[in-house]
Write a structure and sequence with these properties.
Strands 1-2-5-4-3 form a five-stranded mixed beta sheet. The chain contains four helices and five strands, in the order αββαβββαα. The protein is α+β, with helices and mostly antiparallel strands and about 110 residues long. Helix 1 packs across helix 2.
């Protein structure tokens, strides 16, 4: 599934694609992918293309949040969670930095 998602993001001309392995950090998914679209329209188009690609690859329809505004669209495909941001919104939240942190070093 991660390969389908990364290929789709690349084909849709998403920018700043970062894949984070979150196995052992969260039980929500195995991977989190963060990418940017150039505008609200581009963010929505990337999300729509991803829905189609996942469905065509046999993964069913993912759960989607944020499509009406397209500032931040979350695509929950089960094993992979994808965040597609407008650049300003991505910079503000900076979620990939949080998930790339080494949580094991913080354990007491």
């Amino acid at each position: 599934m991660i390969d389908v998602i990364l290929t789709c993001l690349d084909d849709a001309k998403a920018e700043g694609i970062v894949a984070v392995d979150i196995i052992g950090k969260s039980s929500l998914a195995d991977h989190m992918v963060v990418a940017s679209g150039r505008s609200q329209r581009h963010v929505g188009a990337v999300a729509d293309q991803m829905i189609t690609a996942l469905r065509d690859a046999g993964y069913g329809k993912p759960r989607i949040e944020g499509l009406p505004h397209c500032d931040w669209v979350l695509v929950d495909a089960g094993d992979v969670i994808v965040h597609i941001f407008r650049p300003e919104v991505r910079e503000f939240y900076n979620i990939e930095k949080m998930w790339q942190a080494d949580f094991a070093a913080d354990a007491h």
